[in-house]
Amino acid sequence: MRYTFTLAALAAATAFAAPAAAQTVSSSDTIKAQALIIQPATLQRVDDLSFGTIIATPTAVGSVTIDADDGSRAFTGTGLTLSSTDVGGRGRFLGNGNLNVDVPLNVSFPAYLSNVADRTKTVTFTGKLDAAANDLLVNTGATGVFYVGVGGKIDIAAGQMPGLYDGEVTLTAQFQ
């Protein structure tokens, strides 16, 4: 009797263990494959200018700057903390023109970025183009392709209303 019970217990344990060993696990995910195709004599937005997430105490006063050349972010003032998970970055335009020609640029920067929930609440904005375009003239080089980086500075006042602030920078290239 004892022998039969032990044999039955061993058979039951083996029966339950076998399916677990044969079990397979599958996992999958996706990425986007993208291509930007432009025509000659065109200008196209590649990246928006973003100051990232800024944590500001109610008494915070200072400014946040995005470098137009390398996209780095810095701040001055008190009561501000820059989020390390949303660091922002410079804006970029891509242009394509004739080879080795100078292309004049016109840029329009807003004086303020407005809170999207209450457009009467603003932060002062000062825009800047990268060094290659800061004289409002870029050379297309041997490929005909050029990039223009856009950076800037926002000033945060004490009691600044929380929320997303935005504005539009317009760049015009005059292809010849």
TrEMBL record:
<protein>
    <recommendedName>
        <fullName>DUF4402 domain-containing protein</fullName>
    </recommendedName>
</protein>
<dbReference type="InterPro" id="IPR025514">
    <property type="entry name" value="DUF4402"/>
</dbReference>
<dbReference type="Pfam" id="PF14352">
    <property type="entry name" value="DUF4402"/>
</dbReference>
<feature type="signal peptide">
    <location>
        <begin position="1"/>
        <end position="22"/>
    </location>
</feature>
<keyword id="KW-0732">Signal</keyword>
